[in-house]
Design a protein that fits this description.
This is Hemoglobin-like flavoprotein. With about 140 residues, the protein is mostly helical. It has six helices and no strands. Helix 2 crosses helix 3. The relative contact order is 0.21.
Length: about 140
């Protein structure tokens, strides 16, 4: 499975006008389908939603800047490990991310866009898990 960065960009552009709704949908979906991860998050998610949206924007902006992207993902992975995130949590997050993007992308969401996001999320989660596993406890 390979990622088409132009599809990542166009589908993200389609969801951008819905930013706060996208992240709200994401957390609602995540907690509805995986309530076991809810304790890893603060009671109030406003700041977390903003951080998620900023991270997604930075990811899309740096798709081809491997050095910047790797550094971002390593930092995120270490931080998330500090919050208690483990490798088993990442598939749930990925499923909720894809569901959220699909929900808001409209006609820009195609099977190829989903395949591209799935491939990119695989790289993201692998990098974050690896960094989290090397983070000091």
């Amino acid at each position: 499975m390979t990622a088409d960065f132009s599809l990542i960009r166009s589908s993200f552009a389609a969801v951008q006008p819905h930013g706060p709704q996208v992240t709200e949908y994401f957390y609602d979906h995540l907690f509805a389908h995986h309530p076991e991860v809810r304790p890893l998050f603060a009671a109030h998610l406003d700041e977390q939603r903003d951080r998620l949206w900023a991270a997604l924007g930075a990811l899309v902006a740096n798709l081809e800047n491997t050095e910047t992207l790797t550094g971002m993902l390593q930092n995120l992975g270490r931080r998330h490990a500090g919050y208690g995130a483990v490798a088993a949590h990442y598939p749930a997050v990925g499923a909720s991310l894809i569901a959220s993007l699909r929900h808001f992308a409209g006609d820009e969401w195609t099977p190829a866009a989903e395949e591209s996001w799935t491939a990119v999320y695989g790289v993201i989660s692998n990098a974050m898990v690896a960094a989290g596993e090397t983070a000091p406890s």
